[in-house]
Design brief:
738 residues, alpha+beta, four-stranded antiparallel beta sheet, elongated
Length: 738
């Protein structure tokens, strides 16, 4: 592989006009596709194989035209202090609002609170439900404006009016912190390279890669049903790995220049050596992201595949466009150890022979491996402790900031009708096989009324054919509580007895039941997913490092870092530690997809640093150094660059903490803290400590396995053989002249 990538790097350096034009053309093509593509609607949310999804699909087929996936709005009215909603003026205002809302072209139905009895017992709060033909993201602006205008008119009449539901769903904003993250990355690159030109190359290529990836996702969003979160995630991961991959190749290029090589040769060798590490690091990230498909949740699969595609583009750009841009830069990119005129006058950065920080740190770890190992493991273990109280759920309007109308509507409904009113359960009774459907509906209603934790049960609403009915159940606890989950299981538990007595099937759905099934499906998939991703990456790392213990140590270190990161997420978003600093206005359960998502993404990113750092050690060991000295050599060449890469990735991920969407905010924080733990505790401390304790045993591989594995030549041994052939050819030509 090293020889092939070496030739690719030299080709890109020589044919830089062609390579640059190719990538610019791809960027233009993707941009045109994104600009001309139809606006994508909300990504459909389905959980194949779950009871909630089966009930949802049954409603679609048995209640045609009800638009089960359409947007909903709850317009909540509160009377002024000392007044009732039934008072003449207040009632007239509500009825006028209902009439205005019913004139919308996309509205399917509007309920009158006084006929549907949706007025609180004390008479102070009432609400109307508005149902639309299309989803919240597909609603026309005119429909949203009409909804807000009707609410404002009612406010002007003296009522307190708030709007909940997904009809006013807004596209999430990332905020200015994303730009700050990129700015920090730029500063780190300038400090690392001591050159504005060298620092600009990784940023430029990362932005081009992300531009192509996100534009392609936007162009295909409508056709492939991709949500806005998909492009945000692809941007987040694409920026981070794009900068890092380019950083490693540019850094190796400068090191090759410092050894006296010509620029084209240095570019080829940088791609042949550091590029090999980039390929395998990228492969681990792609495996982890594509592996999310085993969960069998379409939304998660699409997010993973789209982000994996952006990572693949980042790898290809690092291997081709970076050497092309290095050709354009020429002598403006200085050899390692020298600064540009602007930043240092071209003089050497430090005295020759003076050990750098990486060398000093590695030497310390090699002398005290056991102490460093224990300190690192204990520290990460302490950080992971909050994860033992992890509570999973999905965000609802109750997790929105108190400044939003959705949150205020949620609170008004809780105050007026009880906390369970914001998460009613929908019971679907399929009595097609029953001889007495009406009796089955009555039995189901009576059974549910007798369960603990039920506030109210609505009469069964049958479809036109009378073989299926809907029943609405209001719990006495909020949607995300354990009590509500227990009630869902209790209702489902009655299904067996009802089936035996009436031949009717009872299914529980609704947003609350969907969330419960979603969390359960993710929990069930976590172990198989972990086994698949870690197993495939373990095999890949055996091929790269020609070792059994090094990949095993890498996987165990990853588990430590991801558990510590989950502990930090729980401490901030569930317990509320430093919540105000992170802009978290409302604490609550951790999103159900967070553990499995962090396992996938963090594993891929963690292996980046493992590959970049340990391949340098492996290279030194293969070329004859003792195990302890190889560790120091690896840190001397790689620690500064890995540190810069980790700081850049942390900065990029931290930039998304400013997002207005709680999911993106949580993912940004989780990935940033996970990279911190993995890069600076696991890879920089625990890894060298374990390798120092293992000594030669770290690089042990059974002979039969060594013969069976393909030789991918990450260390660049093929390039040394190429040098020898060139020297032999030069000597032959010299003898011929004599």
């Amino acid at each position: 592989m090293a020889t092939f990538l070496y030739k690719l790097g030299r080709f890109a350096f020589r044919r830089r006009h062609f390579v640059a034009l190719m990538w610019v053309a791809l960027l233009t093509l993707a941009g045109v596709g994104a600009a001309s593509a139809p606006v994508a609607g909300a990504s459909s949310f389905s959980i194949p194989g779950t009871e909630a999804q089966k009930a949802f699909d049954l409603l679609e087929s048995r209640f045609p035209g009800m638009s089960a996936d359409g947007a909903t709005a709850r317009v909540v009215f509160k009377a002024p202090e000392g007044e009732k909603m039934a008072d003449k003026d207040n009632k007239a205002t509500v009825e006028k609002t209902v009439k205005v809302l019913g004139t919308g072209s996309e509205v399917t139905s509007v309920d009158d609170p006084f006929t549907t009895h949706t007025v609180s017992k004390d008479g102070s709060v009432a609400y109307t439900s508005v149902k639309y033909k299309v989803s919240g993201m597909e609603l026309e602006d005119s429909s949203k404006d009409a909804l807000e205008s009707a609410a404002q008119d009612a406010r002007d009449a003296g009522l307190t009016v708030e709007v909940g539901g997904d009809a006013l769903q807004a596209t999430p904003e990332t905020g200015s912190t994303e730009v700050i993250g990129i700015a920090i990355a730029a500063v780190v690159l300038v400090i690392t390279f001591g050159s504005l030109i060298a620092a600009g190359l990784p940023l430029l290529t990362a932005l081009i890669g992300v531009g192509i990836g996100v534009s392609t996702i936007t162009a295909l969003a409508s056709a492939l049903d991709l949500g806005s979160t998909t492009s945000t995630l692809a941007m987040m991961i694409g920026l981070a790995v794009g900068i890092d991959y380019a950083l490693f190749i540019v850094s190796r290029y400068r090191a090759e220049l410092a050894e006296g090589r010509e620029r084209e040769e240095a570019a080829g060798r940088a791609v042949g050596t550091a590029g090999s590490a980039v390929v395998f690091a990228g492969l681990t990230v792609v495996i982890a992201l594509v592996g999310l498909s085993v969960v069998n949740i379409p939304m998660l699969t699409k997010m993973g595949v789209a982000a994996a595609g952006t990572v693949a583009i980042a790898v290809l750009i690092a291997l081709t466009m970076i050497p092309a841009l290095l050709g354009y830069a020429g002598r403006k990119v200085q050899p390692a150890g020298k600064k540009s005129r602007l930043l240092g006058g071209g003089r050497a950065a430090k005295k020759e022979g003076k050990p750098n920080m990486g060398t000093r740190w590695a030497s310390f770890v090699v002398r005290r491996p056991l102490a460093v190992l224990l300190l690192g493991v204990i520290g990460l273990g302490a950080a992971a402790l909050p994860a033992t109280s992890l509570e999973l759920g999905l965000p609802d309007d109750g997790s929105q900031p108190t400044s939003t109308t959705q949150r205020r509507a949620y609170d008004l409904l809780s105050d007026g009708f009880g906390p369970g009113f914001n998460g009613p359960l929908m019971i679907v009774v399929d009595a097609k096989a029953s001889d007495a459907p009406k009796a089955a509906f009555t039995k189901v209603t009576d059974e549910i009324k007798g369960l603990k934790g039920v506030v109210s049960v609505s009469p069964a609403v049958p479809n036109k054919s009378g073989d299926t009915a809907m029943i609405t159940v209001v719990p006495d606890s909020k949607p995300s509580s354990v009590k509500t989950e227990d009630l869902v299981h209790a209702i489902r538990g009655t299904g067996g007895e009802i089936k035996a007595d009436t031949d009717a099937t009872v299914l529980v759905t609704g947003s609350t039941a969907m969330n419960i099934d979603f969390s359960q499906k993710l929990n069930d998939a976590l172990i198989p997913y972990l086994a698949l991703v870690v197993g495939l990456a373990f095999l890949l790392l055996i091929v790269v490092f020609r070792s059994i213990l090094v990949p095993l140590k890498a996987a165990l270190g990853f588990l430590l870092s991801v558990m510590a990161a989950l502990g930090a997420v729980v401490a901030v978003f569930q317990w509320g530690w430093l919540a105000s600093l992170m802009g978290v206005e409302e604490t609550g359960p951790i999103m159900s997809m967070m553990p499995i998502f962090m396992v996938g993404v963090v594993f891929g990113l963690a292996m980046d640093y493992e590959v970049f750092l340990v391949t340098r050690m492996r290279e030194a060991y293969v070329h004859g150094e003792k195990p302890s000295q190889a560790i120091v050599t690896g840190f001397r060449h790689g620690a500064r660059v890995v540190t810069a890469a980790a700081v850049i990735m942390i900065a990029v991920f931290s930039g998304f903490i400013g997002s207005s969407e709680s999911m993106i905010k949580m993912i940004g924080f989780g990935l940033a803290i996970a990279v911190f733990f993995d890069a600076f505790v696991v890879r920089m401390a625990i890894v060298p400590a374990v390798l120092a304790l293992l000594g030669k045993r770290a690089w042990w591989l059974p002979k039969w396995l060594d013969r069976a594995l393909p030789n991918v030549d990450v260390e660049g041994e093929g390039l040394r053989a190429l040098d020898e052939k060139r020297r032999d050819g030069d000597e032959d030509r010299e003898l011929a002249r004599v």
